[in-house]
Structure to design on (126 residues):
């Protein structure tokens, strides 16, 4: 069974850090480009970051550049999202997704992604 499972979410104070993980089962993650998305209540799902199959190419939304870092360890079939300097506006449910199309152009378009996880909640609040 193909699955993506996110973990690492939680409650953190503004300025704090979290590292999210996206683990794959039922398929080999290194055949896919991986995106992180987030969705806050009442808002559309938005692309946060993308990493290519090899890890050589990465993309970030302007709102997270310089604060978030995406990485992958294909030996562990896992992709990570390191989130630093968190702000209240980063509060959302975070999802990872797998695509065979690369991290270029409209990498943030949800229709590119064929597998999705169930999400992990991140809440930034004092």
């Amino acid at each position: 069974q193909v699955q993506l499972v996110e973990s690492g979410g939680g409650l953190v104070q503004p300025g704090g850090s979290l590292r999210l993980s996206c683990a794959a089962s039922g398929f080999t993650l290194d055949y896919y480009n991986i995106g992180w998305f987030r969705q806050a209540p009442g808002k559309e799902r938005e692309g946060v970051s993308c990493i290519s199959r090899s890890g050589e190419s990465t993309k970030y939304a302007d709102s997270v550049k310089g604060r978030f870092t995406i990485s992958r360890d294909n030996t562990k079939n896992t992709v990570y999202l390191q989130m630093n300097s968190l702000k209240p506006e980063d509060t959302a449910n975070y999802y990872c997704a797998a695509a065979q199309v690369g991290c270029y152009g409209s990498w943030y378009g949800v229709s590119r992604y064929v597998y999705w996880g169930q999400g992990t909640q991140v809440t930034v609040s004092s």
In short: The radius of gyration is 13 Å.
